[in-house]
Amino acid sequence: MDLRGKVAIITGGSKGIGKATAEALLAKGAVVAGWSRSAPDDLQHEDFHFFECNVQDEQSVQQAYAATIDKLGAAQVLVNNAGIGNMGAIDGFSSEEWRAMFDTNVHGVFYCTKAVLPRMKEQGEGHIINVASLAGTAGSANMAGYCATKFAVRGFSDALFKEVRQDGIRVTCVMPGSVETNFGGMEPGQEPNPHKMQPEDIADAIVHALEAPKATMISEIQMRPSQPK
Predict the structure, then answer these.
(1) Which one is catalytic: 51, 146, 151, 156?
(2) What is the CATH number of domain 7-223?
(3) Where are the domains of the chain?
(4) Strands 31-36 and 7-11
(5) Is 146 a catalytic residue?
(6) 47-72 pLDDT per residue, tens
(7) Closest Cα partner for 103 from 120, 88, 83, 73?
(8) What is residue 188's predicted lDDT score, i.e. its pLDDT?
(9) Residue 12 in contact with residue 18, Cβ under 8 Å?
């Protein structure tokens, strides 16, 4: 896809992978609609437009989509990036935190995808990127809830691409390993951690998938640090 002039919706676009992806798409000439609960502090670009959205709430998603359509027109790209990770042992895990992860990581992906699909089908073009995790490929102790949500995103992505490929819509599930972000309450260091990937690395992979030739769909991308600690 030639990204120049294309409208791309990015959820969770205020920091980390979402913000890096917004910057990468803007550099390619795309018009970016950032959906998140708060606007990024230092992302100033004439083609970046912030729309307040809580992906846990389907009505909020519908309102953000209607506002995006009204201001920017139909979207050709959706990057389902918003996600949270709450860790802990199952027998001590908060049910509220469990539900919050599924509401954001799984239900949010469904709400946003459901919103954009009708117009994408009408225009016969679209690309949906679902940011999952390597936690969606293997379980880890004290990460059962997070792993379960990312397994769900991977399964949803696999089913979705088989459902919409004949409509001209491509679907890619991106599964990063350790990325230096605010994930889990951590703060990125002053200098890049050589044992982790950077948000820009994931953004580059997303752009690569989007720019693949029309006859090619990159359905899954697994990414790992080259030399993990």
Answers:
(1) 146
(2) 3.40.50.720
(3) 7-223
(4) parallel
(5) yes
(6) 999 999 999 999 999 999 999 999 99
(7) 83
(8) 47
(9) yes
